[in-house]
Amino acid sequence: MFPWGHLAFGYVLYSLTRRALGVNTIAGREVIVLALATQLPDLVDKPLSWSLSVFPSGYAVAHSVFVAVPLGLAALAVGWKYDRVRLGLAVLVGWWSHLVGDVMLAVLTGGAYTVTRVLWPVVVLPGSHSELSFVEKFVYYVGEFIELLGSSAGPYVFAIYFGPLLLAAILWLADGAPVVRELWDWAADPH
């Protein structure tokens, strides 16, 4: 899943979770924390694998349920203790949604290593055995994605990748456009 897919999927889950809890307003700082948390596994594991060769694949410590579950719960507990439970929830939902999104995408696209990709260190996935740099790998994966969009599976792939983005945009607007709303309010009255 690409970064914007993780962000969209995480926002959808966070917005729906907040609604289920009876809270309809989302603050901009929650969205910023959520956005960072949805990217956290890739920001940790991809450089450690692709650039530093610490792990054979980009699915390692930060993609592991054995790390994400206790640390996500710890973030929620710290948020609770310091009366910032919304920020703790944003970390938990953002991080966990990343793992769920990776597994769901692998299942939907028939990819290898579905659930096992989040079971590090019990399961260590093989590497790509590529000598490409971090940037070259990213460009390679974007190229593969564009090629896939042009294939017969293109409409299906488009729906999987961009459906959550559309839903997230709709929910974000319904939530009052957090972050942009605060910036607008500040610009209108910076005092």
Automatic annotation (TrEMBL):
Instruction: Respond yes or no to whether keyword Iron is given for this record.
Output: no
Record-linked InterPro entries? YdjM-like
Q: Does the keyword Metal-binding apply?
A: no
Chain ranges passing through the membrane: 60-80, 87-113, 153-174
List the Pfam families. Answer: YdjM
Per UniProt, what is one GO molecular function of this protein? Answer: hydrolase activity
Arranged from A to Z, the UniProt key words for this protein are: Hydrolase, Membrane, Transmembrane, Transmembrane helix
Give the protein's recorded name.
Answer: Metal-dependent hydrolase
